[in-house]
Amino acid sequence: MNKTAKLLESNHQRIIDDWEAIVLREVPAANSANEIALHDHIPNILDDIIDILYRHDHIDYDFDDPKIAQIEKNSIDHGRHRASSSQYTVDQILHEYMIFQNVITNIMRANDITDGAVHHLFKCCIDKAMLNSVASFSESIQEMQNKLIGTLAHDIRNPLAAARMAIEMLEHEAGKDRLKKVKKMTWNSLNKSIQLVEGLLDSIKVRAGEGIMLTFEEVDLYEDIQTVHAEACEVYTEEIILNCVDEGLDGVYDATAIRRLLENLISNAVKYGYSDKPITVSIESENTSHLLIKVHNYGEPIPQEKQKDIFSFLEYGNQNKNKQYQSYGIGLTLVKMVAEAHGGKVELKSSKEEGTEFSVVIKKHAMEPGKVRTQITASA
């Protein structure tokens, strides 16, 4: 076993390079992944195999033998990250492992490694890694789909609640202007609910690396932003201050997605902010090409080490065990997806003294009118 381990160790980079070259040629989805994402955990899986070969002379027939349990984490992570890369499917993940196995097998054969026990141990390691990666990939796709659907279903409650509240306020004695205002509020809320239901149906068809479906069109966001603020003031007891420019907000956007982005940020500010301190929403037109959305609250700060993870679906689902920051969850993943789909980004500043502020920069004309599926990224 030691001889084989030393052989693979000395050929480590060659194995990875040969594997990558063949994968890029034979696995279609690999060409859409960047170099870092393509490599991700494969070198670590190779290190696991080398270590197992160093430590063991034989293995039981069952590949669930605890001796190869260490390969579990890296192969699970491999599957989760493939779920965040567009166009990957189960058969392509299996193809990657088949190429990996063939590259190593060819090196062993070229160096006269014919020991049956070595080949058996190696095969058990590959089989275990394949099983873990495929299971993790499938579970991650299902997890993302469930969370997207759950978030959409949750977001539908807000406009419906606002519509119900508007209807409850509907009194003929209130006067014509009041009736007109309530009617408009009800119509906007119900129309938004219908759009969210359409998004709910689209989310059922999520594939690897994909998020929600957006519909871009020429629109001025001023009225949408005013509506979100008015509804939030009706729903929440906290003071919510809106500072919004009244011009320069036109562009090519998915207005429903921008509203959901803003609603999620306000909801988080209410949930984690001090109830006796105001929440400030600022909308600025930085220039002819960019829009800046900021939501600030005072409350317990988000630790620096957690700030990157709360934006990422993968990190949030896989590593973050703190329930407080888990509950940010898919809402901030959605914020990040919407920002990036508009050619922008989301940033976070949080401290005890200054409070917490989410800043979203989006481009006004990054997209052409039409439907586009958002992409999930593995890191913030």
Give a topology summary.
Layout: H1 2-10, H2 12-26, H3 35-39, H4 42-55, H5 71-83, H6 90-110, H7 116-168, H8 176-203, E1 210-220, H9 222-235, E2 240-244, E3 250-253, H10 255-272, E4 279-285, E5 290-297, H11 304-307, H12 313-318, H13 323-326, H14 329-341, E6 345-351, E7 355-363, E8 370-375
Helix pairs in contact: 1-4, 2-6, 4-5, 5-7, 6-7, 7-8, 9-10, 10-14
Could you explain how this protein is built, in words?
The chain is of the alpha+beta class and 380 residues long. It is built from 14 helices and eight strands. It has helices spanning 2-10, 12-26, 35-39, 42-55, 71-83, 90-110, 116-168, 176-203, 222-235, 255-272, 304-307, 313-318, 323-326, 329-341, and strands at 210-220, 240-244, 250-253, 279-285, 290-297, 345-351, 355-363, 370-375. Strand 4 and strand 5 (290-297) form a beta hairpin.
**Count of DSSP strands:** 8
Beta-strand portion reads 15-25%
Pattern of helices and strands:
HHHHHHHHEHEEHEEHHHHEEE
Through-space gap between termini: 41 Å
Task: Estimate the helix proportion, in percent.
Answer: 55-70%
Largest sheet: 5 strands, mixed
Shape: elongated
Q: What Rg is obtained from the alpha carbons, in whole angstroms?
A: 26 Å
Spatial order of the strands in the main sheet?
2-4-5-7-6
Mean pLDDT: 80
List low-confidence stretches: 316-328
How many helices in DSSP terms?
14
Structural class: alpha+beta
